[in-house]
Amino acid sequence: MSPFLYVDLGRVRYGLALKLQRHLHRLRRDGRIPDTVLALEHDPVITIGRGGIAAHILAPPETLAPFGVEIVAIERGGDVTYHGPGQLVLYPILDLRGRGKDLHRYVADLEEIMIRIARSLGVEAGRRRGFPGVWHERGKLGAVGIHVRDWVTMHGLALNVDLDPDGFQWIIPCGIAGAKAVSIADTLDRPVSMGEVWVAARVAVSDVLGGEISPAGEEVVAAWMSESLAG
Description:
Elements: E1 4-12, H1 14-29, E2 36-42, E3 45-48, H2 61-64, E4 70-73, E5 80-83, E6 87-93, H3 103-120, E7 126-128, E8 131-136, E9 139-149, E10 152-160, H4 184-188, H5 194-209, E11 213-215, H6 218-230
Parallel strand pairs: 1-2, 1-11, 3-4
Antiparallel strand pairs: 2-6, 3-5, 6-10, 7-8, 8-9, 9-10
């Protein structure tokens, strides 16, 4: 595979990251940028995918308001999920025409990235047939939700590291009744810093997606941000 850009964005509000994703998705479809992976955390937000059911949000607005939680309907597959500080989010903008046009393999690759990151910290995670994402014996550790147009991907994965607040209490995660979301910190019974995960994520992304990482320069990222806001 060819080298791809890897962009550490830090903590970003969901709306800004969504505009950036959509902008980069257009650029990738037009062949104006290489495959790119965005790595970030979000401010608290609940997102609803194409198959989402609003009733799977359990908390009323007055409960969510003090935490500044947004609710955003988006084009990815799946139901309701939560993003917030202490969760690793990866948004690959990849052209699958160079990767066999295999959506099942791509979803499996995203799951494998999370499995490897968790294992690097001493946590064994795995898959459950019929339920995308990765699981620990104590609950769901990470979620996958993607959107593909013209064989170019957006959205991606979210791995629970050490959530603050743990917004899964406000939803039925992925619409699975009785499902419990857990974090790496929960399974280790100790705090886990995002710094521990950031390094492991870069290694796992490179190994699983099969390409050499090339960090995007600050000027390039700033230009993308400006263009996405203007668009």
